[in-house]
Amino acid sequence: MKNQPPNLYPPSLAIRLLRWFCEPALLEDVEGDLEELFSNRLKNGRRRAKWLFYWDVLLLFRPGIIREIRIFKGQTNHIMFKNYIKIAWRNAMRYKGYTALNLLGLIVGMASSILILLWVQDERNVNAFHTNGDQIYQVFRNMRQSNGQVNTGTSIPKPLGDLVKSEYTEVAEVAWLSWSLPMDIARDNQAIEESGRFASPEVLTMFSFELLLGDSQTALNSPSGLLISERVAEKHFGPNWRNEAMGQVFKVEEQFDVQVTGVFRSPGTESTLDFEWLLPAQAYFAANPWVEDWGNGAFETYLLIPDTDKVQAVADKIRMEIKKHTQGNPNAGDEELIIHRFSDTYLYSAFDNGVVSGGRIEYVRIMTIVAIFILLVACINFMNLTTARSSRRSKEIGLRKVMGAARKSIRTQFYLEAFLLAGCAVAVSAVVVAFLLPLFNELVGKSLVLNFEAPETWFFLMGLIFGVGLLSGTYPALLLPTFNVIQSMKGGVVKQSGFASYFRKGLVVFQFAISTLLIIGTTVIYRQIDFVLNKDLGLNKDNLLAVSLEGDLASRLETYKNELLRLPQVTHVSGASGNPLNYGRSTSSANWEGKNPNEGYEVNVMLTDEHFIETTGMEILAGRSFSSQLQDSTNFIINEVAAELMGFEDPIGKKLSFWGIDGKIVGVVKNFHMRDLYEPIAPLIITCISPSNSSIVLIRTNENTSDALAAIEQVTQSLNPGEDFRYQFIDQAYAESYEAEQTMRTLANLFALVSIVISTLGLLGLASYSAEQRSKEIGVRKVHGASVIQVLLLLSKDYGKLILMAFVLAVPFGYYFMQNWLNQFEFREALNPVVFLFAGVIVMSIGVLTVAAKSYQAASVNPVKSLKEE
Amino acid sequence: MGKYSIGEFEEVLLLTVAILYDNAYGISIKEEIEDRLNRKVSVGAMRTALSRLEKKGFLQSEFGEATAIRGGKRKRFYKVTPYGKKALEEVMENRKKLWEAIPSVAFDFKAL
């Protein structure tokens, strides 16, 4: 063979391939056969022979020829793993401070991200327990206003459901469910007010609410049936409710009798549909004939569409149904119907112009990103600390290489170390999380658990070990085996490549950029929430109490008000049809001078009495307030938005009518926020035509609110014995409506802090390392007369630059993300450059202080100490 | 097929190995089949079939001398075992029985 010209050899690539996959026992003669064949074929041309050789090798790639797959073939190096673990342990113990720093960073990072991801998972689990969740669609209506805005609502005309049920073949079931209503559920004269809903029988079959007693197929079929929650059953029947509840008679709202046909498990926080009782929808429909009109919005309507391919067809068909059926009705609005998958309604609940625009999903996304960022920052720490201190291990690596270790086995060693450390960190953080969960739950208002019995938890923790191990171990595992043997054996510092040190600096920049970003985000969120909570809402919400008018107290409103006004703590009292800061009762029948009859507007109507303006502390901009001396029952006050909408330059005295009441405008009140600050202010008419229609009284008290509350309760109870005293402070209710945002604020604060802590830990490690490495240099400089300050500057300068770069990097991203977030608020704080500066200063000062503290330590060492050893 | 399960290609291989007697190794078998039966044989298909036959006990093999033309690799020579012979005989018997059972008119195509 040797005497053949080299290009007459068979293609070596093919042979290598063959040798790789061929069963060793067969290899020799197979290869021989192929070579013989090849030399025979050479007669017909070399190129052809080569191609045929490749072809034959490929054809040999078949079972029977391919060798068995063995992961550990023959000799194994299991024995070395023991050594790796031993050395890892010794190293960890030798540099305890460094190990602690490294572990602490990982633990803090992991624990935080586990907490966040638990929260994210919980958010995603809301409404996920319905077996058919993906097939249930809720109907929404988009009402187009003449000013171009679209209001999206869930209150759907009942005939739509009937129509769908009888004519839509794609829809298997239709369910009606009312809004949540507080009602008295009484047994043996013991009344308990609970919130619940009216529901059609399909609600129990379509959704997966669990019945503890009763049959879900029939429980809501009888018009006199009643389902109560486990909790209500326990309240009425005690612990033995299972045997006593069924068939018992309750009186609802002191009007009609119903019989218990079932008990259900209370839908907890994982359900957005909440109720403590269910009554048959047909009872409501029978008592309220108005629901049969296409013009009236009634219950929420849910459709079960089993075939996902048909969803679009249903959506197309249903769109124009209301318009079609209200044609010719003068009050008919311009509206369309849309359907939205029920399992998405929790996370995607915000509608912008009739189209889903997000909702809580944004917070879920933000938090997921934060979790990943924090984990990344922790991993970077690990990478940095390991590679920076790798010269400590250089002798070990050199010796291993001399003793015959391949790069591969050194790589294995450092991967193993990373995985070991990640494993320790995960174990500790799981324990930390278990301890912190109660606190965290209180903070976010959830009941999260880290369930160690569920296999998912273990998968997740294993995945975390694997992910973090890989992420943090890869760079050291790739870098360290490349050390030159002689250099590392000679001792001292292995000069690391330029790339390595740039890479490390890049990581520091990245780390601090993330921290800066998180601080910017936190500050913006904090300021916006602050802005929301402290905004001048157009009325004085402090010391303002809303007491709901229970029973027939509304008909004795005058007496009640006079009694209240006699209290020394009470300054003003007024009836109203709702909390002015959370109000949405509207009419499309409003008419005014010069209104284009073709245009429809939804205008809010607030029913009050003459003292409303002074009680709430609103400001009259033009005209006058109501007055008890003047006959004001057909005089109206409108807000600025309404005045603008109606197009009056001077609205005072203009004619205005709605609900068939003709009257005129006497005043314009300054805009106040009837909805949350995500939405613009809506037009409003305030009337004092029938104070007895009030559902609450607004009470302005003096500073001593707790005293006032007690006195008010006493007056209310004496006038209204046997009824609940239900009240809320307007400012508290307002703050509570931003609970989600406040939670986000707390979380964002917390995790920005975590990220900066981790980054600082990393920086601390790096700084102390570089100070140590340069200890001789510092000694020489000091001997030559450098002052401590000069050395300090020398050491801190580098890191200062890095942090500055991180800041520059973080600003544009921060600006972009936060502007996006702010844009969803109709009323928002402008993005202030001070915020960025603030974040920069914080990160900068923390970073520089850390480095300086470490450097000072190094700089103040007596040079004799660092120089005496050589 | 009786207790010996043998495919058509396997049968051809066994017979060829028997024909070649003491010169039956990979390439010679391949060429012999290609010459006599005028069909293409791929190295891969032949190799798997040969190892399969050896595993079943119809063939046995041993290494021969190394030759220069094979890059110093030895040849693997195959021999039919008595068990293999039995299998071949049975296959032939079965075929014969089937032939004999065919009524003479079946192949009398002129009658059609």
TrEMBL record, chain B:
Signal peptide: none annotated. It holds the Pfam family PadR. Residues 22-90 form the Transcription regulator PadR N-terminal domain. This is Transcription regulator PadR N-terminal domain-containing protein. The lineage of its organism: Bacteria, Pseudomonadati, Bacteroidota, Cytophagia, Cytophagales.
